[in-house]
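pasting for ref. prot 1 ->
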Amino acid sequence: MEMMKALVYDRPSVCSVQELPIPQCGDDEVVIKVMAASICKGADRRHHTTGHKLGRYPITTGHEFAGYVHRVGAQVQGFQAGDRVTADNAVPCGGCYFCKREMYTHCENFMSVGHSIPGGFAQYLKVKASSVFRLPEGLSFNEGCLTEPVACCVNAVKRLDVKYGEDVLVFGAGPNGIILAQLLRHSNANRVVVLAPTRFKLELLNGYGIETIQIDQKDPEKHRREVFDRFPHGVDAIVDATGSASVLPGCFQLLKKRGRLLQFSSTKDDEDITINPAYFYRNELHYYTCAWQVHEFGAALEAMSSGKVKLDRLVSRQYSLEEFHQAIEDVLDRNVLKLVIRPNGMED
């Protein structure tokens, strides 16, 4: 029996690298040799602390991955060993109340590779062939494993539905904020401005041709004044990519009348904010959310291959599988963006 190394969470917060059999390939499946798997600060940290709501332990985590096709099932067409690929981690059931209404992210039986199905923090994993996507030429495995966060951002931009000529703010310049800003820059938006406190992240965005405003966390009035200097009536739309509920009340104050705020990043379950309904009523404001993605990998890869979304500067550090414990702690460092695990070594 062929064996591999895989990171396994026996239960939330308890994980180790273990020797497991390489997955057997079913007739409609593909086994992928994982060359890069990136850490999601939100979801993967939940596995490492309190546990993820989709988690079925024991589980090999890692829902952002790319690699080579290792084996294909007898009924699989269009792929062969050696192809460079990634795969959609989302597995909706297709038959429940919400799936029948094409509301797949609310599937009542939702499964996900890296949460409830063994994922990419392993040397090999298997997925349904229908979820596999070929990586475009010119994209590295480090970029390819970021297809999932790009897909989530594509879903958010579709949900925001920017009208021609609208002005948009993005709060937060983590990986998702950087991706969202690039997608929005190529939408119907007139101007896109990112607000964040960390200088090097804003400089990266400036290098991509995106306007920025640096937040002074000790004096929020500074960035508020700068926003209104640029947009005297406020902005049409804001995307919150910070994951901090405390940011939201200030965001509402920057909206134009009939403006809307899309909360992209999840906040903690115990974080509450106060909303003044009279203020919302008078200004006819909208507040809505966007969680993960389903069926957006194709659009994400098109945005990546066209150069509309650049990912070349988003990977801050790389680690071996055995260095996972260090990597999952380093993800909290505000001076990093994406951290990538290389289960089969650093060479592509």
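and prot 2 ->
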Amino acid sequence: AIIFFWKLISIFKYDIAIIRVLEYNIMQVRTQNLQEVFMEFMSAREAADKWGISQRRVAVLCSEQRIKEATMVGNMWIMPSSAQKPIDARSMRYNRTEEKTVKPFLKWAGGKGQLLNEIEYYYPFSSGKITKYVEPFVGGGAVLFDILSKYDLDEIYISDINAELINTYRIIRDDIDALIQMLHTMQNDFIPLDTDNRKAYYMQKRERFNALKINGDEDINIEKAALMVFLNKTCFNGLFRVNKKGLFNVPMGSYKNPMICDENNLRTVSKKLQKVTIVCGDYRESADFIDENTFVYFDPPYRPITDTASFTAYTENSFNDDAQIELAQFVAEMDKKGAKIVISNSDPKNSDADDDFFDNIYSAHKIKRVEATRMINCNSEARGRIKELLISNF
């Protein structure tokens, strides 16, 4: 029987992990039909194909013990061929046919749109225990809006030290009609102009934005938010960069027909933000909100991977190595609270294989290196595929 078994193995080319389990079963149940033994198990890959989900998702379900009799053999999961796909707990809180997908309302340097497929693997909401979400460096909010599109959580907290950015989030939430009216006016004024007149119009709006930024007035926050969106949609590469005086200094881009007022998305964003706590402040202010029921995503200004790649001027404040270390210490404190945490950053090993900065300060956590595309660099040859870090405490 064993010889016949190995001949069948050569025909069907099963993975070695499955072979070992099947061999064990044959030795234990000698009278069982060999072909029936073959059909008893399937791999995570086969289950993924059968159920129409990713192999990674099957592995997660196995690790959560949601697939009956699933077993880890070597470095792979196997399970009975008769196993049924578990009901996805997420579907109970999210109905794709009823919910509208919401996307970031700004282009944002360092935005995480391209890494969402990697980051979403860390979403811990399927168990039902994690009911809160915190993003203390919200930026353009790619992860925030992905979560808002998929989950109905109890509480969400976002923050950033960029006052103009947070003002825009608040105005979209609280004064969407007035904002859309202003943006439509700017779009109708700007689009018909030729290049020279567009530049003049752009510079006028940039100067007005900087005047409001420096001489902040609560009565004109709606105008400042509209200017923030307008400049973002018409400036070079969608950058938000300020000089040492705090003045926005990005030149106009060369878009032929920019979508300055995406009314449908803005109204959807406004609805999604209604229950979101929006704070202008340091990431440490989120501490009181974070507990064992919270998923926290930290996306701080990235550590430069070269001496000349220090684009961190989203605000007048810098985020140097000391600040990165302080953040790591804060992460450790939140870890003790029982929160699920993910941090993203640049990988210094892109330029120096011996640079263990993040490996050292996050040595207590898991570090995964993933591929990303760096699009912003004055030198086109410096753009392209690089490694970034996803660091987690689970």
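The first strand starts at residue 41 and ends at 43.
The mean pLDDT is 84.
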